[in-house]
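User: Hi! I'm a student and our assignment asks us to look at how structure tokens line up with a sequence. Could you show me two examples?

Assistant: Happy to help. In each example below, the sequence comes first and the structure tokens follow. Example one:
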Amino acid sequence: MTSYTVQPSEGPRRNALVRWLAADTMNGIKRQRAILGYTFLIPTIVGLLLFIVGPMLFTFALSFFKWNVFRPPEVIGFANFERLFSDPRVFVSFRNTFLLVIMTVTMLEVLAMSLALAVHRLASRALGYFFRTAYFLPVLLSGAAVAVTLGYLFHQDFGVINYYLGKVGVPKIAWLTDSNVVLWTISLTTVWRNMGFTFIIYLGGVSSLPSEVLEAAQVDGAAGWRRIRSIVLPLLSPTILFATVTDIIKMLQFFDEPFIMTRGGPGDASRTVVMMMYENAFGNLDFGYGSAIALILFAVIMIVTGVQFVLSRRWVFYN
């Protein structure tokens, strides 16, 4: 019987071969997982390219043309932007939009945070679920339906709101036809419809606050407004930043409420930037000018968002 003796150098070679095979197997598994992950991402990537990136690039290119669909596009360079910066109605629409943003976002943040703090303190879980559902329900409604319904409620002559105000001696208010009141009407409508989403954001932030910090503050005697100002607000600062950024981006694109409730009136008192873009592009078939307005609005949104993140370094605490 022939015996076989393992050479001293054969053991390390075999171990190296085993390690190489194991590493190659792991790399193959990682490669397969990566391919599978990218396969699942393909529909999302295609959707982003077709419905977001593509239209953005087309809008950018179209802003340098004059086009009304019926005639071939005509290159006019920066003429649309020159017209935009000399159009007083555009500046009025930007002013209205910024006023609406300031009023709406301020009410949204204060009201949503207050309600989140109140609901979080409820002892009854069933009652907490009820209020969460009740506050979030308007978010699920159509913006057009909400605008039509509240437009009737705010009607000066036969609206329910003026009817009950008259019962307590308040004269009728021209909610939708007074240039000094109409922005407040639109802002209140928007707050009622969107408050539930911001409320859920703040409720999640309040629920994740460290209980040991709050209990220590209570032991030290911090209560009421002092506790909210010194403990709760700093801990909630990342949530406040997220809610504020998302709400401002959303409200800079005001369209449903002013378009349906007032058509931008009286005059141009409630006309917003998106309404100007829509009216020029789809009403007047001036797609080049409408694209130029859309680009300026996009630039404004980017600048405002960037300023928010820069300023957040002073008041947002992540630890």
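Example two works the same way, sequence first and then tokens:
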Amino acid sequence: MQKTNFFYLLVALLFLLLSVPITDDLRGISAPVAKAVVFSVMLLIGIWSLRGSGRFFSIGLAFVVAGFVLNIVAINSHITFFHYTAILAVMGFLLVTITFTLRQVVVGTEINANRLVGAICVYLMLGVIWAFAYSLVELAAPGSFGGVTPGHDAGWDSEWLYFSFVTLTTLGYGDILPLSAIARALAYMEAVTGQFYVAILVAGLVSAYISDRQSA
């Protein structure tokens, strides 16, 4: 399997996390279209990072194409069903990318900066995929969360990214609250996942990397 340079994927994820909030605050442009462009850039770089991965690339490409088409239809038709399927397609792509990245981060004995960057990418993608999950729950059952702005674009909203990463890092500011049972379950599952991921995988990789550098 071809080794991936995860620095490109990291740049794409950081671009996503910074561009979506900026897009929310801008005026005079179509927010749904602008956010769709931002996510499209991230998806294109993400699928490019899967090149040479065999079935991962094929499955990821299928999810990306489906996501593009369904999102365009959702923006133009305003039909809820297409919002559901567009979010599910993007979540499917993120799951494929996380699986592929973890295989390269975990497997092998060589510790280098690229593997550490890959571990960071997985952490950021976990936050993004949970943001989509929260938006999907709110779309299916309005009122599942308190403190969110009504009428924002499902799945492309900086509020969901904000709440997801606040939960993932267990900051818990309390300005957005999960109210339904499913929303609360997703929130505590994300908090537990974030803590275990940092404690077990990232800490282990950093420790091994430092030891390898000192013994070189």
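Here is something you could point out in your write-up. The mean pLDDT is 80.
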